Amino acid sequence: MTNTRSLCNKVAEFELFVNTRNPDIICAVETWLHNNIPDSLFCQRQYNVVRCNRHSRGGSVALFLRNELNYTIIDILSEFSNLEIICVDVEFGSQSVRLIGYYRRGCYDADAISYTQTTFTCLQKLCSTDKVVFLLGDFNLPEIDWDYYIMVLIILFTTRL
Predict the structure, then answer these.
(1) What is the pLDDT of residue 156?
(2) pTM (2 decimals)?
(3) How far apart are CA 160 and CA 19, in angstroms?
(4) Is there a contact between 100 and 135 (Cβ–Cβ < 8 Å)?
């Protein structure tokens, strides 16, 4: 998991990171990618990339998956199209896990409450699975007590299964 804050102007650093660490999966947030930027500009040959681009400057999220991995992209319903979120199921032999990449812009305006409610509804649907779920990203919530709220989320998601 990395916050790139514009992947396009850090291609060399990203390539060095990939070649040094050799990860199977990378979740990158704040990639600042948009539809006019081809994967070939920043994605090394040994990876496939799944992207959720923002339609304006900033934000966005991408998952880089090593070519050898079998994965299925999970469709994000149109009711959640305003979220910067992607989801894939990845097979590791007989085990399958769900990876969710998410980015929330760091603002606290009037729309933030609605955006957060939409996020929780979407996450609830995506986490309603028998797979182990890995939630990756930048939630931009610096004052949150994660130990408390992670337990609340686990209880909410498991009681609705």
Answers:
(1) 62
(2) 0.86
(3) 42
(4) yes
